[in-house]
Each structure stands twice: as structure tokens, then as C-alpha cells.
Write a structure and sequence with these properties.
Layout lengths: L1 H13 L1 H14 L11 H20 L2 H8 L4 H35 L2
Amino acid sequence: MSKLKGFIKSIINACPYTITGKKCLNIIRGNTVDKPCSSDKIQKYRKGIKTGFNISLIGVFCPFLWYSIFTGKSKNFIFLNMIHSGVILSIGVLLILINYFLIIYYRKSSI
């Protein structure tokens, strides 16, 4: 039973909505987060890729879209939600690509 609880807790902690909510609560509470060292640009770009990936997951698993699909809403409403999810997904993919190309550029310029 404890393995099942641990598995469910790990899924909840990996959810992009949970991560975003925790960050918002930390900002509201005034908790400071240790900032990464600015000299390590590759680590900064990798975190940007991870952020883009999380945003893309939000676009794919948007609860509004899936709720409208599963409840049988009208085609226009589902299409509206698909456009919204597509925009969020595109923003995430754009962040991934920008940070990926910045890593490549940084590695080539440091040679």
C-alpha cells in the first residue's frame, strides 16, 4: 500500500499544474528560491528546455480540452479548446527550440 501511495505522490509532484501552483504559493508567501549560478549558461538553458517541456505538457493535457471532449460538447467549443491547447503547446515547443539552439550556439562559441 505504501508503494502505491508513493507512486501516486510522485505522479502528483510531476504534474505541471502542481509545480506551477507550488511556485505561485512560494512567491505569494515570499519564500526565496536559490537562483542558479549565472556563470553556468548551459545549466540555465537546460532548465529553459525543462520549462518548455512542462508548458507543452500543459497544452497536451489541458483539462478544459479533455473535459469538453469527454462530456460531448459542441464541435465549435472543442475546436476553441483545441486552438487554446495548440497555442500553449506551441509556446512550450518554441521555448524548447530556443533553448536548444542557444545551447548549440554557446558550445560552438566556446570552442
